[in-house]
Write a structure and sequence with these properties.
alpha+beta, DNA-binding, eight-stranded antiparallel beta sheet, 202 residues
DNA sequence: GGTAGGATTACG
DNA sequence: GTAATCCTACCT
């Protein structure tokens, strides 16, 4: 369950496991957004949620549709969808092809200030799934893209020092219920770093 | 072709 | 509490 590859970037096979194993393991990993001009924006993952096909809260619960098709495919791809007509959410597809599952990335701790004029404190700029897509400029054009090094978005594993701190108990990992659902609210499939300012309060 | 509702957020 | 805002899925 806590098998972690400290090698960056993460390989496709690492995502090809149960979403319930990948979602907590993604905490402490880094999302890297590379822009066409070569600039990078990097953020540590501090909050995730797991969704899978047999779960009524999952978009894939009622079968494959054009929107959810990527969730049914190979692991290691981005699933990006629009919510409430105004915000995008970034998910990482996990597990085997044919079984819909993905990790929703809910909050990042940014490593540096983005060049775009965003207001507010750095540690709150990527607090929430909609905000992190705004600040990282992620939208549906990134849907179904592989999260590999040559792409606009990829994921890097935990650094050695972070993993050491984690094992020393300096980053308490909490598990609780998911946010904003009208179904399956009771499943404890949300993970976050205790005390991190980017994590949702509720 | 019409429409209800949603894995959100900021503001009062 | 509620508005902003529009795609998706599910009807007819």
């Amino acid at each position: 369950m806590t098998e972690v590859k400290p090698i960056a970037p993460i390989e496709q096979s690492w995502f090809n496991r149960s979403v319930l194993a990948v979602a907590p393991d993604l905490i402490g990993c880094t999302i890297v957004r590379q822009f066409p001009d070569g600039q990078q924006l990097r953020g540590l993952i501090v909050e995730t949620e797991a969704y899978q096909q047999d779960d009524p809260g999952c978009h894939g619960y009622r079968g494959k549709t054009p929107r959810t098709e990527v969730m049914f495919g190979e692991a290691g791809y981005a699933y990006v969808y629009l919510i409430y007509g105004m915000y995008h959410c970034l998910n990482v597809v996990t597990d085997r092809a044919g079984f819909a599952s993905a990790v929703l990335i809910r909050a990042l701790q940014l490593e540096s200030m983005p060049t775009q004029p965003f207001s507010g404190k750095l540690d709150r700029l990527a607090a929430g799934p909609g905000k992190l897509c705004q600040v990282m400029q992620i939208d549906r054009s990134h849907n179904a893209q592989p999260l590999t090094l040559d792409q606009a978005i990829w994921v890097e594993g935990r650094s050695f020092s972070w993993q050491q701190q984690f094992e020393a108990g300096q980053h308490p990992l909490m598990q609780t219920t998911r946010i904003g659902l009208s179904q399956a609210q009771d499943l404890p499939w949300r993970w976050y770093l205790k005390g991190n300012p980017a994590v949702s309060k509720t």
